[in-house]
């Protein structure tokens, strides 16, 4: 009987240690200008899953931010940048498929968000690998009024947009035209540091700024989500022995 109870307790402990799938995917970005931590939105599942797949395959390792515009954004993800010659024009490379647009009104281009680059296709489908991290700037209410009148041709900003762009900042004119699929939880200052580097006439940094990425494993993601709630990481024998350090899959 004691043996049976022990086995039951062991089974329950293992099950508990393996349970509690994280709520989001998190991606660590490492650069020579600092590191950052990215949360991918579940509302943009196609972009989320495609990005995770590429990161896990090592697709982005040693690529560079090939297009950098201060007070706007930093763009990367062109595989041609891995072995690019100095001053080589970049921005056309990537897988031969596109991601259907997942543009949503509440997912806006605030500072620190990640968006999917694209060409001028009418369906606003995203490039498969190229992305940008938003820097932008903070706008006064008067500047937002002017933006509505001239650049947005009379389209009114929502209260969310006005509140966000007058406090956090960002690039409001991109809203509704590109898919935003995540945001930086840490390391927004990395974007600022990259954004101010000297560039050539094609907006490519004169000194290469390369990056590497990895998806946090299940245990790291669980601990991060507890930390964000103000809770300590879970400990204990069962978690130490059976808590997963491998990948996980979200629905």
Automatic annotation (TrEMBL):
Claim: Isomerase is one of the keywords in the record: yes
Annotated ranges, domain PPIase cyclophilin-type: 23-209
Superkingdom as given in the UniProt entry: Bacteria
SUPFAM superfamilies, per the entry: Cyclophilin-like (SSF50891)
MF terms in GO: peptidyl-prolyl cis-trans isomerase activity
Signal peptide: 1-19
Pfam families in the cross-refs: Pro_isomerase
Keywords, sorted A to Z: Isomerase, Rotamase, Signal
Family: Belongs to the cyclophilin-type PPIase family.
The protein, known as: peptidylprolyl isomerase
